[in-house]
Amino acid sequence: MKKRQSIGIFLVAVGIIFAAVLLGTGNSVFAKEKDDTLIPGNVYIGEVAVGGMTVEEAKEAVADYVKDITDVDVVLKAGEKSVTVKADELGLTWGNTKVAEEAANIGKSGNLIKRYKDQKDLENENKIYDIVYTVDEEKTRAVLTEKSAELNQKAVNASLKRENGAFIYEDGKQGIVMNIEGSVQSVVSYFNNGWDAKAPEIELVADVEEPEGNKESLSRVKDVLGTYHTDFSSSTAERVINIKNAVDKIDGTVLYPGEEFSVYEAIAPLDAENGYELAGAYENGTTVQSYGGGVCQVSTTLYNAILYAELNVTQRSNHSMLVHYVDPSRDAAIAGTYKDLKFQNSTDAPIYIEGYTSGGIVYFTIYGEETRLSNRKVEYQSETVSQDTPPVQIAAAAAPVGYVAVTQKPNVGQSAKLWKVVTIDGVEQEREVVNTSKYSSSPKIIAVGNVSDDPNACAAINAAIATQDEATVRAVAAQCAAGAAPAAPATTDPAAGATPEAPATTDPAAGVTPEAPATTDPAAGATPEAPVTTDPAAGTTPVQ
Fold first, then answer.
1. pLDDT band at residue 114, thresholds of 50, 70 and 90?
2. DSSP track, 394-406
3. Which residues span the domain enclosing 171?
4. 26 and 104 inside one domain
5. Does any domain span residue 8?
């Protein structure tokens, strides 16, 4: 009995001594209870020393640290391509903020012995909490969506090129299409799993896009399905450049079954940077200078080759006025997406478009696999349905009496249709309308000089102009130029039915200088061939 009492007394004594030690230490748990809101010393969150701080102070300090590293470059890779963004763009932030509360609780939880041990551990070794980084998924998704065009790699289909009259096969190349949702999770995971705050390279999730076609399928391209050519030998040097440039951009195109081709997309943009020159074109019934003037002859030539190949034309527009290089309804105008030539490979095999120029002639040939009967022939016939004779407009010009110049040649208005005629062994089997086209007329405009020191000459030529009769104007102008001013011709006033007293006044809008010779079509040196029609929807790209 006395022995047991002695043991109990001993244990109580040990406990009292141990408690005294705890109370006596400078890091006593009990002593720290008066600073219970502070994080103990030697505690770090990441590289930030948070000892002696409150929980809120520690959170603010770590947030400031994270903010300072959001300027780091993040490289996002998809296959062979990559883009660089700032971590801030991804919404980089600190994800495990609760470690601040955990840090503040060191040495303040558990039994007496655990508290003592935790305090002693801090005296001998720093306590370091890792920062777990995270990014904002919405911001990351927005960045990846925006950058997808730069990161995606379009598959390159197996193709052909034609050299010295023979086809040469070219292998295709796989494409890569970024998987946005998968890539968002890859970015989140990268930052969550122990990022070291250094510039990262993150491999994104991408899907492989297989190229279309192979040597076997392209070997079927061997037959001429349709061919056509037009003459541009009378064109200006600038127009020649435009035609050759556009042809080169189309030549070598391979279309697989079902694929659609847009001429405008293939040759655009029509500007100097893309190799085009200013050349004659039509705009609202007049001849203007426009970048790419002449490319409509390219689309028109291709259109006719397509017709003979009997491919599916999905979009075609006629010019606003007649062109000289093909019959009515055989033309195809280009004016941005408003007037475009589009067609589809409606065969079961690939087709190849060959285009080139030689000796002032532009050629297009469609190659593919011929499946039509050898004794079957297709021809196209243009029919004029109606015509609209253009008027003559005569205007006074600030030039000497006797000056007469044609400033715009007339264009006959016309309605037309194109017939497709199919024969077998020379016997007609089918006849159908391919398209109908309406071309506007444009007037013949004549500028007549009415400047003279002789008032009689001025009166005579102004009266002649008022008649709007070309023969009268030329006769009076010739007499004035010869020095014999004729009497002013009688001019019937269509409103009053009598001859007006006042002569026709000079048209201040005409502004034709005395030196101006009779003009010709700047596009081709002859009858204007390529109308330009302003797109009423966009008011931009004219028909070339």
1. confident
2. EEEEEEETT-EEE
3. 138-217
4. yes
5. yes
DSSP string, 459-522: HHHHHHHHHT-HHHHHHHHHHHHTT--PPPPP---TTTSS--SSPPPP-TTT---TTPPPP--T
CB 312 within 8 A of CB 348: no
CA distance 365 to 358: 14
Residues contacting residue 317 through CB under 8 Å, at least 6 positions apart:
332, 333, 335, 338, 339, 340
16-23, long-range: CB within 8 Å, 24+ apart, which pairs?
22/112, 22/116
Per the prediction, the chain carries an average pLDDT of 84
| pLDDT tens string 116-164 | 887 887 888 888 888 888 899 999 999 999 999 999 999 999 999 999 9
Half-sphere exposure of 179 (CA within 13 A, CB side): 13
Residue 379 CA to residue 420 CA, distance in Å, equals 6
Give domain status of residue 173, yes or no.
Answer: yes
In a domain, 62, yes or no: yes
* Owner of token pair 């003037």: 293
The reply to whether 11 falls in a domain is yes
| Residues 101 and 181 both lie in one domain | no
What is the number of helices (H) and of strands (E) in the chain?
Answer: 13, 27
* Proportion of the chain above pLDDT 90, given as a percent: 62
For residue 500, which of 491, 508, 509 has the smallest C-alpha distance?
491
Q: How far apart are CA 430 and CA 381, in angstroms?
A: 13
Other residues' Cβ atoms within 10 Å of the Cβ of residue 54: 14
